[in-house]
Please model this.
Amino acid sequence: METRVVEDVELVNEVRLVGRVPVPADERVLPSGDVLCSFRVAVTRQPGAGGAGARRRQQVDSLECVTWNGRVRRSAVSWQVGDVVEVTGALRRRFFTTAGGTASRVEVEVSGARRLRRAPS
Model:
């Protein structure tokens, strides 16, 4: 958890997701030699999300998660599609260069993770 106090108000960047694993995790070795693990967690939207009177077309959010942490990485690669997991971490906005110019994405940088329930066999 990251915190900072500004004028007696604590600023917090803390994320907790509990959801299902929609696809297997992916590990990549970067040119630096670091290993990055990326995966998604699908969470159901709460009733009424999207504002009063809004027609809900999307009922699930599939959120991008990444980790550099070896323990979390080993857990994530062992998860099966359909497992229910809990992850904690912080939101990060990452900038990168594409053929069309600079782009960015928001993802959860995971510092802790655990499987809560295995997918039905």
